[in-house]
Amino acid sequence: MAKAARAIIFQDDKLLIMRRHKEGNEYFTLVGGRINDGESPEEAVIREVKEETGLEVTSTRLVFIEEHPEPYNEQYIFLCAAKEDKDIAVQDNSEEAFMNRLDFNTHEPLWMYAGSFPNLAFRTPQLQKVISECLKTGFPDTPRKI
Fold first, then answer.
1. Are 41 and 76 in contact (CB under 8 A)?
2. How confident is the model at residue 63 (pLDDT cuts 50, 70, 90)?
3. DSSP letters of 6-61?
4. pLDDT of res. 100
5. Which residues contact 138 (CB under 8 A, 6 or more apart)?
6. Span 90-125, pLDDT tens digits
7. Radius of gyration of the chain (CA)
8. Per-residue confidence (pLDDT) for residue 71, from 0 to 100
9. Which residues, in sequence order, are bridge partners of residue 6?
10. What is the pLDDT of residue 62?
11. Residue 122 in contact with residue 27, Cβ under 8 Å?
12. Which of 28, 47, 30 is nearest to 38 (CA)?
């Protein structure tokens, strides 16, 4: 069973998201991806954020565990802090950069106003709903299954 780790990162009033173009569809998701063998979810989210944005994560807190359809049957969603940097980009040595160069399954990290998040074409609606609620009420102190 494959697992993934994803990051919720805010800077000012903006949320970090990933715009994806895959198989003719455009959608949005959180930054993150597959947890490698021998890697903890925390290590994976730190690595994935660096590869996909260039940001350095300074803290992580697990807030959600999401049951998810294949290819990732379980996703660990972290509320993360990162060193502030307005310039974000997929890093040249990443798998995402390789796919971008082929113009296949492209990835584009973006900062968007958090208030716009509920209206996005987000990949997993149940996660979008929970994050949207937490934007109003705050994120849980202990991990919650969704």
1. yes
2. very high
3. EEEEEETTEEEEEEEEETTEEEEE-EEEEPPTT--HHHHHHHHHHHHH---EEEEE
4. 67
5. none
6. 888 877 867 767 777 888 899 999 999 999 999 889
7. 14
8. 67
9. 32, 77
10. 98
11. yes
12. 47
- Residue 107: CB atoms within 10 A of its CB come to 22
Instruction: Tell if the pTM clears 0.85, that is, is over it.
Output: yes
In the block, tokens 């494959």 appear at 2
Determine the residue type at 14.
K
Strand pairing partners for 81? 59
Residues 6+ away with beta carbon under 8 Å from 31: 6, 7, 9, 16, 17, 18, 48, 49, 52, 53, 109
Residues 28 and 8: their CA atoms lie apart, in Å, by 13
